[in-house]
Write a structure and sequence with these properties.
Strand content: under 5%
Number of domains: 2
Distance between the termini: 26 Å
Number of strands: 0
Shape: rod-shaped
Order of helices and strands: HHHHHHH
Radius of gyration: 36 Å
Keywords: Membrane, Transmembrane, Transmembrane helix
Protein name: Transmembrane protein
Length: about 200
């Protein structure tokens, strides 16, 4: 694969496009991290519930232990206070479930932002870069040995207005093997890819 051209102007444009693509991905990742942190900030009330549940459970456990020391009715008092312990556990459990829900939403949001942000890179930038790399590799492989193939590629790939600058009838000239036109079309194809033309065109 040849990912970059040989002509400086084209290389600068390619590097700029690559940097923009990478920069866009970095921005998406940073945005995803910021969104995740923002959503995780909503865990505050849930954490308060967990702490409150633990505090309530601890208070009722302590009260139950103290009540057990009361003569005759201590066990009954302790059993009555056990309901408060259960309430503390329920409150803490509800808080932990909310914490897990918020964490899941935060992670899903972050992943969604990264995936959606990466779509333009994956479906626009990357295919264009791979298509260029394949075309440039093929052109470099044949430019010193086969002008005809490059000329044919130029006629099938480039706009007609550019072909007409080489010859009023480039297809007819190519069919009758007009070497000047063939070399001109081949050079046009190479320039369109940002590649240098050979000093001595192949016959």
């Amino acid at each position: 694969m040849r990912f970059y051209a040989e002509r400086p102007a084209r290389v600068v444009l390619q590097l700029l496009a690559d940097l923009l693509a990478v920069g866009w991905l970095v921005v998406c990742v940073l945005a995803a991290q910021a969104a995740r942190e923002l959503i995780l900030g909503l865990q505050g009330p849930a954490q308060t519930m967990v702490d409150a549940g633990g505090t309530i459970r601890g208070a009722f456990d302590e009260a139950a232990r103290t009540a057990q020391q009361v003569p005759f009715v201590g066990d009954d008092l302790a059993r009555g206070l056990s309901g408060g312990t259960g309430a503390g556990d329920a409150l803490a459990t509800a808080g932990r479930e909310q914490l897990e829900t918020v964490a899941t939403v935060a992670l899903g949001t972050a992943v969604g932002i990264v995936v959606l942000g990466a779509l333009p890179v994956l479906f626009v930038w990357l295919p264009l870069r791979l298509r260029y790399a394949r075309a440039a590799r093929s052109a470099v492989a044949v430019r010193s040995v086969d002008s005809d193939l490059l000329a044919l590629r130029a006629m099938t790939r480039l706009p007609v207005r550019r072909l007409l600058k080489v010859s009023p009838d480039p297809a007819a000239a190519w069919r009758r093997d007009d070497r000047a036109v063939v070399h001109g079309l081949a050079a046009l194809e190479l320039r369109s890819l940002g590649l240098k033309t050979p000093k001595t065109p192949p016959d």
